[in-house]
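ok new one. same drill as before - structure tokens go in, u give me an amino acid for every spot. 142 of them this time. try not to just spam alanines like last time pls lmao
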């Protein structure tokens, strides 16, 4: 009898610990993204096969730095997505800007192949005196 009661108590304690840890992680994730109100990215391909990535970010207030920290271009090889290239503010000055609450930027990219599917994984960035928020958005494939 004592053994069953001890096991039940341990199971209840374990369940409470799991719930508390899960809530804490969710709250931390939510706080980390509080600076970014929303972020969107769309990918299109023109008739020549060149890609265009349009990015939009809106912050909850004016940020010291806001924009796109990187754009990863991926192509589908028939079974998985493969990284073809990565664009950053070092490659394309203007992906990041300062002292704004919203920012739009469009980037062109000439892919290696014209007859395969591509997608972009866009990493958005917002920073103010209270810290940094990031958000990753994967576009639909074209």
């Amino acid at each position: 009898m004592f053994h069953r009661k001890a096991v039940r108590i341990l199971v209840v304690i374990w369940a409470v610990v799991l719930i508390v840890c899960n809530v804490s992680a969710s709250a931390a994730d939510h706080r980390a993204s509080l600076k970014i109100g929303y972020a969107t990215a769309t990918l299109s391909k023109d008739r020549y096969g060149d890609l265009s990535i349009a990015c939009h970010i809106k912050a909850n207030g004016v940020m010291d730095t806001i924009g796109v920290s990187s754009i990863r271009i991926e192509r589908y090889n028939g079974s998985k997505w493969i990284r073809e290239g990565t664009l950053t503010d070092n490659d394309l000055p203007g992906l990041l800007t300062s002292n704004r609450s919203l920012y739009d930027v469009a980037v062109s990219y000439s892919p290696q192949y014209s007859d395969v599917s591509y997608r972009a994984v866009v990493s958005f960035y917002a920073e103010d005196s209270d810290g940094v928020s990031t958000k990753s958005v994967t576009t639909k494939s074209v």
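Residues 2-32 form the longest helix (31 residues). and btw The chain is about 20% helix and 55% strand.
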